[in-house]
Amino acid sequence: MTIPSQRPTSEPSTTPRAAARPLPPAATSPTDPLDLAGIGIGPFNLSLAALAHPLDHLRTAFYDSRPDFRWHPGILIEGATLQVPFLADLVTLADPTSPWTFLNYLRTRERLFPFYFAERLHTERTEYDAYCRWVSENLPDLHFRHHVDAVRWNHEHQVFEIDYTHLDAAGEAHALGRTHARNLVLGIGTEPHIPEPLRPLAETPQAPVLHSADYLDHRARLLAADHVTVIGSGQSGAEIFLDLLTHRPAGHEGLHWLTRTPAFAPMEYSKLGLEHFTPDYTRYFHALPEAVRNDLLPRQWQLYKGIDHDTIAAIHDALYHRTLDGGWPDAHLTPGVRVRTAGRVGTTKVELHLEHDQQGTRSRLTTDAVVLATGYRERRLDTLLAALDPYLRRDNSARPRVDDRHRLVLDPAVTGSVFVQNAERHTHGVGTPDLGLAAWRSATILNTLSDTPAYPLPSRTAFTTFGLPTSGGRTAHDLAHAPHARH
């Protein structure tokens, strides 16, 4: 369904005047539904809410079970920076005049001049978290402490029914409610991935095995341990290893850093390489056959699983500094290693059974604590969308099909759309979780719900032309801009 759009100008005031708008009720009736209901309030749905805010033709509301906005609090290590420039905020790449830009956030804090002189293209993660919290605290239409329990399609009224539980300050059920919406957007985020061999230990409260998502909660305990092992060579693993190395005594570092990848490799950050995170590449990837996408995605790991050059340099500098007295630090960095099994030794230690992929050799490592920097996986939609499962169209791997407008492909009997955010890597590629594409995807969703574009988007975003012309002389870029039809 499309809705007539009206694109008002952005508010000129320093602080967005969102508070002047009344907070919509959490519940709505089937005869007076929302135009769009969002489930989850992470950066991506927060971006969507911010860009939807000035659009008077859209009635929206967003729900999250948490008491307020928090962005990966367990890894907000002091000094750690985003891997995207500050322009990749919630709105700028779709509407730089929006009152919800990062620069306007700095303006409200009277920090524009310090930021200008700091000459920082990449902001610290703690500052990005503070910026997003500022948006969430000033933006209406956000309902925290609302846990969505189920979603159904109401054929009579042609709307989605959303059941939720309103939680009190202690996180206990306070009241039940139901709202209705013509369209949904799922932004339920990702969850920490625990490798199978380590899952039993990680699920044991007494075992010193934790995911990097909880690092800061256990940092003091880890610094006091005699030996710590970090598993995983992505950016989070590198930052945690560097933090531990920096704060442990020289000569008594007691650190192992292990990874399955063949090297502690830098993230691809060349200017043309970064064009894989453009809408042009996303459209190209989506148009590829499913089997080609499945084969291609794992081979692109350095585009999003590597380590930024500054962090690699800082680690090497820290290690080198500890050799100045003639010794080598007690820190071991070993790539190409996987954990076969793991178990407890006594009551306080963990034994890791390791295998080197290239050598084919096996070894054991006893450690006092393990930090799993093993990444995140998209949360499964099955439980939340159980009632919609008969209407879902799936690919050959039983994954939901997602069209080029970020909508789940549904049976035509469901006339509403279900959009997804950061749940479509298998169809949209490496840019799916990238913050730099947040505003563009949000604008795409809003444009899909409007009869005229609420946010005009550029027709070309990369110097690279991905793909060859088709037999009709049209490139993949041309085909991507053909009129869109619901699949």
Question: Care to give the gist of this entry?
Answer:
With 487 residues, the chain is of the alpha/beta class. It has helices at residues 43-52, 102-108, 112-118, 125-138, 199-202, 219-224, 235-246, 279-287, 290-296, 309-321, 425-428, 438-448, 476-480, and strands at residues 36-39, 60-63, 142-143, 146-154, 159-167, 173-181, 184-186, 190-192, 209-211, 228-231, 255-258, 331-334, 337-345, 349-356, 362-367, 369-372, 376-378, 418-420. A hairpin with a 3-residue loop joins strand 13 and strand 14.
Lateral strand order in the biggest sheet: 3-2-1-7-18
Helix content: 10-25%
- State the helix count: 13
The residue ranges in which pLDDT falls below 50 over 5 or more consecutive positions are 2-13, 17-24, 483-487
Name the average pLDDT. 91
User: Can you count the beta strands?
Assistant: 18
Q: How does the helix and strand content classify structurally?
A: alpha/beta
Proportion of residues in β-strands: 15-25%
Shape: globular
Query: What is the CA–CA distance across the termini?
Result: 14 Å
Taking the sheet with the most strands, its summary is: 5 strands, parallel
Fold topology:
Elements: E1 36-39, H1 43-52, E2 60-63, H2 102-108, H3 112-118, H4 125-138, E3 142-143, E4 146-154, E5 159-167, E6 173-181, E7 184-186, E8 190-192, H5 199-202, E9 209-211, H6 219-224, E10 228-231, H7 235-246, E11 255-258, H8 279-287, H9 290-296, H10 309-321, E12 331-334, E13 337-345, E14 349-356, E15 362-367, E16 369-372, E17 376-378, E18 418-420, H11 425-428, H12 438-448, H13 476-480
Parallel strand pairs: 1-2, 1-7, 2-3, 7-18, 9-16, 10-11, 10-16, 11-12
Antiparallel strand pairs: 4-5, 5-6, 8-17, 13-14, 14-15
Helix pairs in contact: 1-12, 7-10
